[in-house]
Design a protein that fits this description.
By secondary structure, this protein is an alpha+beta fold. It is 39% helix and 24% strand.
Length: 371
């Protein structure tokens, strides 16, 4: 057949027909040079300069594979993801329309942890020591400046009392819980931290006015303040603030066991959806066999207590354990858009980065072929 001109023409025509069918079914895949898109350069974050060159290269290699999995699931056609040099990753995304969403998927660490929520008394008992550490770190002049700022700020503690009563009833701040007589005798500047922290809606949960969150973070970062907490204890912020009848925003602050009893390494599946009872956006997850056994054992020992689901250091939910839980659960995202849940499920499936990545270069690339 191939020995004749007619046979060769038939083979050529057959190959052309197959190519045409494939082109019709799949379309032409345009790369960055044909349709333009987004170009990113990323490197492993090392703000303190503690990583060796070998560690940076190793983390870069691990992150490269995770990044490829994420972008493949994100659905970008013909992406270019490659390592340049020892510790730089180049990502080119042709025809991308939602740049911010793509960057969020790329940047998110996606480090998932499950931690036990401790009792409120743990922080209440530690706050006097934390206040003293703040007083010692700031000194008299610093305390006076802090007090002056609070008195002139229209969103200070006193100005927000009506809203706090509305939210919590006649519930005092953590400073008042420690003893109103002590607070009055020592003066307000002797409780610079505890007076900004309110009792929250559940055990192990406190609330800070959103306008006060930067100030509380600043005070917590002072030398010796966090050391006043008991060993294996930490404070973590909630992912989202909540409003009080449109009058003020409050940010949850949780008291957690610092050591997680489970991490996202044991996660096998994550699917975005909506809770059929509340219509809230959720991500349902499934753990592997070992993770399911560990989760079941911990929940069996802590019925009636709360477990925090922590993603990238922020608490996304802290449900009460009502019964023993196995390998399946969910992360509640409230009224977040479905795209946010889908992206979270995507990065959870792909896994957490070995070390955080930062975007060091970003530019839009226009189509160049033929110019």
């Amino acid at each position: 057949m191939f020995g004749t001109l007619k046979g060769r023409l038939l083979v050529i025509l057959g190959v052309m027909a197959l190519a045409a069918v494939a082109l019709w079914q799949n379309g032409i895949k345009l790369g960055l040079d044909l349709q333009g898109g987004m170009h990113l350069a990323l490197e492993v974050q090392d703000p303190n300069g503690t990583l060796t060159a070998e560690q940076r290269a190793d983390y870069t290699d691990q992150n490269l594979e995770i990044l490829r999995n994420r972008i493949d699931q994100f659905g970008v056609t013909e992406p270019n993801i490659q390592k340049i040099g020892a510790d730089r990753i180049i990502v080119e995304l042709p025809g991308i329309t939602d740049e911010e969403r793509a960057k969020d998927v790329i940047r998110q660490q996606a480090f998932l942890e499950w931690k036990l929520v401790l009792g409120s008394d743990v922080l209440v008992n530690a706050l006097p020591r934390m206040d003293r550490a703040v007083v010692q770190a700031l000194g008299e002049e610093g305390l006076r400046a802090l007090e002056d700022t609070s008195q002139t700020d229209p969103t200070s503690v006193g100005a927000q009392q009506d809203v706090r009563d509305l939210l919590f009833g006649q519930v005092d701040s953590a400073a008042d819980t420690l003893g109103a007589d002590t607070a009055r005798a020592s003066g307000p500047t002797q409780t610079p931290l505890s007076r900004l922290i309110l009792q929250g809606a559940g055990d192990g949960e406190f609330a800070v006015a959103e306008v006060d969150v930067p100030r509380v973070k600043q005070l917590l970062a002072l030398p010796g303040v966090m050391n006043a907490l008991p060993r294996n204890t930490e404070l973590r912020w909630g992912a989202d603030p909540y409003a009080v009848q449109g009058q003020a925003l409050y940010r949850p602050l949780f008291v957690l066991q610092a050591r997680p009893f489970l991490t996202g390494e044991r996660l096998e599946e994550a699917i975005a959806g909506r809770d059929p009872m509340t219509a809230e956006t959720i991500v349902q997850f499934q753990l592997d066999r070992r993770g399911g056994r560990e989760f079941e054992a911990v929940t069996a020992e802590n019925i009636g207590k709360r477990i925090a689901i922590v993603l990238d250091t922020l608490v996304h939910s802290a449900p009460v354990v009502n019964s023993r839980i196995g390998a399946n659960g969910q992360i509640t995202l409230g009224q977040a858009p479905m795209t946010e849940a889908q992206d979270l499920a995507l990065v959870l499936r792909a896994g957490a980065f070995a070390a955080p990545l930062e975007i060091i270069e970003q530019r839009q690339v226009g189509p160049s072929l033929g110019r």
